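User: What would this chain look like folded?
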Amino acid sequence: MSGSPNEVLAGWERASFTAAGFTHDTYRRGTGPGAIVIHEIPGITPAVTRFANEVADRGFTVVMPDLVGTPGKEVSLPYTVASLAKVCVSSEITAWALNRTTPVTAWLRAVARALHAEVGGPGVGAVGMCFSGGFALGMMVDEVMIAPVLSQPSFPMARGSGAASGNLGLSPDDEAAVIRRAEAGCEVLGLRFAGDRLFGTRFDTLRDKLGDAFIAVELPSRSRLDHSVLTEHRDDASVRRVIDFLAEKLLV
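Assistant: Here's the prediction, encoded as structure tokens.
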């Protein structure tokens, strides 16, 4: 998918949502149970929109929050660096803090609750990518979140082999709630390229904390640049696996 930002987002309804002290635009398309697609850095790119369109076409009401960047804009190195800089200094998104749930997760939880109240269904799904991968895990604190997907979760930023490398970016209370949900049967799907250095050791932590409730998809890296499983370095089989996972949990 290419073209102007308006062409990329054709068919998507723009709105604004306020909760937990934050306001962000959202883009919405489709009908059926709710699925929230949270973009990666640098923003809602054509590749992110392509994936979200495929989710909507499977039978979901998809909401894409706009957290940073220019919706519909193509990826470039300067654009990526500028968006990353904004994320790193954002008070909403804690890029470096360990054992703390990033504040914007409260806003995302409110989006999920509002969407579920409107469209119904057994619950809501969420797909987080890169800096937002852990957000989908944090949304699992609410029982309405029954299909969390973590694609290359990379925040808090891994620094060598220390604590940050495997940290899930959750407060102790939220981590305990996520573990309880997993023990009660809520499964978490995670995806990564095996050679991705931005990822750290989070899959090890997820296996340890969530046990059999964590479903890991680990792909051989095709190059040292492979990172974005569902978008810029797209693996088609993984895209199908994610959409099938959402369908298994939500299209009842």
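The longest helix spans residues 104-119. If you want, I can go into more detail on any region.
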